[in-house]
Amino acid sequence: MRCVIARYPFDLTATGVLASMKGVRPELVTGASVTVGRRRYPVKQVGRVITRQDPRDFTEGEVTRAMARLGFTCHDRPEATPVGAGGPLAG
To answer: What is the pTM of this model?
Structure first.
């Protein structure tokens, strides 16, 4: 699939993204994220790996749209446990 990220065209495939992310440890997810394989990565980390560009050069939206079009599951923000739900002090 052809997509434009930071004004540069890329031909991306789902298998190519999987191969690029193989062996890459996920960074801490604090914003938008994408599930690649069985791991959840920050969108900016995925964009940096697949484009080899500085994350300041592209937006989360550009990478999220490309990953969604390739069939990957994208998430808006990290899932947080509500305050008071579970935990060692619940009771």
So the answer is: 0.81
Distance CA 17, CA 5 (A): 14
Task: List pLDDT tens digits, range 27-80.
Answer: 999 999 999 999 999 999 999 999 999 999 999 999 999 999 999 999 987 666
H or E stretch including 45?
helix 43-51
**One-letter amino acid identity for 41?**
Y
What does the alpha-carbon distance between residue 57 and residue 76 come to, in Å, rounded to a whole number?
A: 20
CB 1 within 8 A of CB 13: yes
Write b or e for each residue in 18-30: b if 16 or more Cβ atoms lie within 10 A of its Cβ, otherwise e: eebbeeeeeeebe
Inform me whether the pLDDT recorded for 85 exceeds 60: no
3-class secondary structure, 41: strand
**Which residues make beta-bridge pairs with 10?**
3
